Amino acid sequence: MKRRILVPLAAVCAVLAVTTSAGADTGTAAAGAGAGAGAGAPNDGWEPAPSPSWSHPAGARCDFAVQGSPVVDEVVRRTLATYEDGTKVVEYKGDLVVRVVNSATGASYDADASGRAVVEIRPDRSQSWYVVGPILAGFGEGGGNVPRGLYTVDGAYTLTVSPTGYKTLTQLHGSTESLCEKVG
């Protein structure tokens, strides 16, 4: 089966507007895919998508070791499409606040990552994220078009991840905020 995916931000916003009118909250994306309940079910296919705690050694994202843990995690996901080649299109939403901590000093910041996203996850491990609102994004040295760091990215934007893990952030409107600076 040949397919062509053109997902301009306007189309994503239209999808999000339709689901938002059904009473949905804003949310965030987490890499994964789920098999939700069938159409017409009370939850419309949404299932929990818990965000794990994480840590990075000094130099990986910030000049110091940094860790994060969700303090509010109401993220849910639903699979919108699954293609013959194994590609899945998954929507994420829900409140997410992550406490980012400088492991050496204990300085912390509660980062809002409650953006809403539609994520195309391919069998080769590449991904395309179409996002409105804030998420947390980490970039390693030489690992993307954004300098090494840990950021809150907000606004309307796309984030593509190559099969090798290289990340390309394209902001249509919005901002990035360095969390390394917040807790440094």
Outline the structure in words.
This is Secreted protein. Keywords: Signal. It comes from Streptomyces viridochromogenes. This protein is mostly beta strands and 184 residues long. It has one domain. Helices cover 9% and strands 43% of the residues. It has two helices and twelve strands; from the N terminus they run αββββββββββββα. Strands 1, 4, 5, 8, 9, 10, 11 and 12 form an eight-stranded antiparallel sheet that branches. Strand 8 and strand 9 form a beta hairpin. The radius of gyration is 16 Å and the shape is globular. 31% of the residues are buried. The N terminus is likely disordered.
- Report the order of strands and helices: HEEEEEEEEEEEEH
Low-confidence blocks of residues: 1-40
Which shape, going by the Cα principal axes? globular
User: Quaternary arrangement of the chains shown?
Assistant: single chain
Radius of gyration: 16 Å
Total number of strands:
12
Distance between the termini: 50 Å
Protein name: Secreted protein
Keywords: Signal
Signal peptide: 1-24
Organism: Streptomyces viridochromogenes
Features:
184 residues, mainly beta, globular, disordered N terminus, signal, Secreted protein
